[in-house]
Fold this sequence. Notes:
InterPro entries: SAM, SAM/pointed_sf. It comes from Branchiostoma belcheri (Amphioxus). It is built from nine helices and no strands. It is mainly alpha-helical.
Amino acid sequence: MAAAARERDREIEMAVPNCLHWSCEDVADWIEQLGFPQYRECFTTNLINGRKLIQVDCSSLPRLGITDFEHMKLIARSVRELLSIEEPRWDRSISLHPREPMGMFLERKSKTGKRADNLTYAGFLKGK
Length: 128
């Protein structure tokens, strides 16, 4: 029974995007590969690593120095695709179940500290 639970937890952890472990340089390389070498320094200067990338969206990009609206939309969409999270809907009813679990897990994982460092997706799903 315990072996089956460990295997299930391992499979759940496989769903977590590898980019969470990226360094600032890895994120800068990825931005460059997206076709935006001019923004490499924006990400390295602001120390955006894989866990901080979770917080990057259209509202945070201007604070990083990215103000071209079309570039902002493409970068934000690419971050969501990279993390396999859904696009937030402005018309979502508050009576609906909260956002999908991966997005909520990534939001918690983006924080710093031992608690976030030790948080696993399996543990998050179990409510630990």
